[in-house]
Amino acid sequence: MARSTALTNLRQQRAGKLRRAGRRAGYTLAESLIASVVLAIAIVAISGTLAASYQQNAIRDNTTTALTLAQQLMEEIAAKPISLPSGQTNKPGWQQGQTDRRHYDTIDDYNGYADFSSAIQAADGSTVNLSDDGSYQRSVKVQSGAVPAGLTGPPEDFVMVTVTVKMPHNQSSSVSQLITRVTRFR
Amino acid sequence: MRIMETTAGQLHSVIIRRNGGRGCRCAFTLMELIMGMIVTGLVMAAIAALLSAVAMGWDQSGKSQTNSVYRVQTHARIQRILKGVKQLGAVRPGSVNGTAILPAGVMIWKSDDNGDNKVQFSELALLVHEGAVGTADGYLSFYEVAYPSSWSQQQRTAADNAPPVVTQDDVYKDSSIDTFRTMAYVRKQLVASNLVGVVFTRTDGADISRPSLDYVLKFNKDDDVRVEYGTTSLRTPTTLPASQR
């Protein structure tokens, strides 16, 4: 009898142990939070990299467009003379209130000139809208007498032209060109 | 014998501890397995959507970059052609949407090879918008004369003077834009394709200004419609033909 009671007690103790051991172990709240934070940091890091990559692509495209716009204006300016031959009347430029580039006849007429890519006037008088991927603003600075170091000559024979293009994302690109007086062969 | 029994008991204890003290391995229930698979599926779908979006972004970025390079290359080609020429001749303006009756074109006096201040046939070239003008299948072509390399100077001169004789004023005739590209020994090079419309404007008003060509190009490449604007001024010592002085 005593032996039977002892066996019953032993079974009960074993069942209690199994019940305790059978309780499933889950993650605690702290563990779950830490896992979530780690996952969130990883996602933010990956998203940040992707966003930076896309932004870099956009900036590169904008810079290409800006340089094309700057190059166009620089070519147009470089085709003009520094000054007119004696006897010819110099037409007014931007500083004198002339906003139509087609009437500019010398380089310094472009000093201070500014326009926007949404309405750029072409040589035929039409207006071209080049604002496909944002708005660009072009501006021109003409610096007379810009004799480079190491060169000699009359200061009036040297002009430094700088075309600056403001791009979307608050960035800007500049193109500069030193123009010297040349003789046109005829 | 006693030592062996003790060691076996210790090993048994270790195994029980590794099993969480239970002595048996626990498997997922069917419900847990299904839930786990659903959650895994959701996570995989989210990752697939993210990767798909990234791939589409890269694809779009790649196309944009390709188109951008293509447009810049077109500017460079036009400038390479025009910067070294002697004079710009007849100009057809064309239109930005390709709706003009006559597409854009410009006759070019490339160089005065024999230094006689006159325009010979072999010194002419043409830049013209053709193909399906007004659609994405329009293109810009450059025509120039290319005699066989085996020809002597006498043969070239004879060909220049053979009928139909090109006089030096022909470079300023609008009709030359149509006739020049059909003449013998004139070869064609493609400058740019996917051009809906082209506008050319020559600027050569003042005696002291360099001749310039102002151009507007409307591209439609991969349904990406862009308008480009550029100017090229002649860099060589420019000279008018003797008849134009």
Helix content of chain A: 25-40%
User: What is the typical, i.e. mean, pLDDT of chain A?
Assistant: 84
**What value does the Rg of chain A take, in angstroms?**
38 Å
Distance between the termini of chain B: 126 Å
The end-to-end span of chain A amounts to 135 Å
Count helical runs of chain B: 4
**Major sheet size, sense and barrel closure of chain A:** 4 strands, antiparallel
Structural class of chain B: alpha+beta
The strand count of chain B comes to 9
Bin the strand percentage of chain B: 25-35%
Outline the low-pLDDT stretches of chain B: none
Overall morphology of chain A: rod-shaped
Mean pLDDT of chain B: 85
* Biggest β-sheet description of chain B: 5 strands, antiparallel
Strand order of the largest sheet of chain B: 1-3-4-5-6
How many separate structural domains of chain A? 1
**Which pair of chains forms the biggest interface, and how many residues does each contribute?**
A-B, 39 and 42 residues
Q: If you had to describe this structure to a student in words, what would you say it looks like?
A:
The complex is a heterodimer of chains A (186) and B (245). Chain A has 186 residues and is an alpha+beta fold. Chain A has one domain (29-180). Chain A has helices at residues 2-22, 29-78; strands spanning 114-116, 120-121, 127-128, 137-144, 158-167, 171-180. Chain A has a four-stranded antiparallel β-sheet with strand order 1-4-5-6, with helices on one face. A two-stranded antiparallel sheet of chain A has the order 2-3. The radius of gyration of chain A is 38 Å and the shape is rod-shaped. Chain B is α+β, with helices and mostly antiparallel strands and 245 residues long. Chain B has one domain (65-244). Chain B has helices spanning 2-18, 30-83, 153-161, 176-179, and strands at residues 87-92, 94-95, 105-109, 124-131, 138-145, 186-193, 195-203, 212-221, 224-233. In chain B, the strands form two sheets. Chain B has a five-stranded antiparallel β-sheet with strand order 1-3-4-5-6, covered by helices on one side. A four-stranded antiparallel β-sheet of chain B has the order 2-7-8-9, covered by helices on one side. The longest helix of chain B has 54 residues, at 30-83. Chain B starts with a helix and ends in a 12-residue tail after the last strand. The A-B interface holds A 17-18, 21-22, 24-25, 50, 54, 57, 60-61, 64, 68-69, 71-73, 75-76, 78-81, 84-85, 88, 105, 120, 122-124, 126, 128-130, 132, 184-186 and B 20-23, 26, 54, 57, 61, 64-65, 68, 71-72, 75, 79, 93, 96, 199, 201, 203, 206-212, 214, 216, 226-233, 237-240, 245.
